[in-house]
Specification:
It contains five helices and eleven strands; from the N terminus they run αβββββαββββββααα. By secondary structure, it is of the alpha+beta class. The chain has a single domain (3-159), classed as Beta Barrel (OB fold (Dihydrolipoamide Acetyltransferase, E2P)). Strands 8-1-2-11-10-9 form a six-stranded mixed beta sheet. Strands 3-6-7-5-4 form a five-stranded mixed beta sheet. A hairpin with a 4-residue loop joins strand 10 (125-130) and strand 11 (135-139). The protein is globular.
């Protein structure tokens, strides 16, 4: 089987543990995997956004996948990692309990999620990979994190500026009034 043929019949995943289950994401979405580090909280962010990190000079938002997927929140351990993924051209970190492996699975071993377990809020489930000893839930992180993008968390550096408290016209009027008062004060002191 050539590499082109295998690309059509296989999928390469980054597999990570989360709340005693295995999840997989397409390796092409993953930029890097880093150890946990200090996360700065962002006031007003959604509850599943832990905050931001400084990743080699770039501010990267970090999401707790347990909270986003409505799983029990667990303690971070020395195995916990931040998986930095590309979402619409921007880096986002997602916290995983542990990254276990990079794995190739055949497309024939992947089943679509059952309509019994999915709803409108779970459109981020791509399918379930059936392996000999376990199941891996495949996630579409773009859809998992779409709420962050829609709320503008990804574009924190691109937020719209606050409108000025005083417009340019009002500023000119205030300056003219002040100038008249100064002139009147100088004239009356003579």
């Amino acid at each position: 089987m050539t590499e082109d043929t295998s690309a059509l019949t296989e999928m390469q995943l980054v597999v990570f543990g989360l709340a005693s289950e295995y999840y997989g994401v397409d390796i092409s979405d993953v930029r890097e995997i880093i150890r946990m580090q200090a996360i700065a909280r962002v006031p007003g962010a959604p509850s599943f956004v832990e905050g931001v990190i400084n990743l080699r000079g770039r501010v990267v938002p970090v999401v707790d996948l347990r909270k986003r997927l409505r799983l029990d929140v667990g303690e971070q351990t020395k195995e916990s990692r931040i998986v930095v993924v590309d979402i619409s051209g921007r880096d986002v970190g997602v916290i995983a309990d542990a990254v276990t492996e990079v794995l190739r699975v055949t497309l024939s071993s992947i089943e679509p999620p059952s309509s019994i377990i999915t709803n409108a809020d779970s459109d981020y489930l791509r399918g379930i990979a059936k392996l000999e000893s376990r199941l891996i839930i495949l996630l579409d992180l773009k859809k998992v994190l779409s709420k962050i993008e829609s709320e503008g968390i990804l574009g924190m550096e691109e937020t719209e500026e606050e409108p000025p408290l005083i417009t340019d016209e009002e500023s000119v009027a205030v300056k003219k009034t002040c100038r008249k008062k100064k002139l009147a004060a100088v004239a009356s002191s003579d």
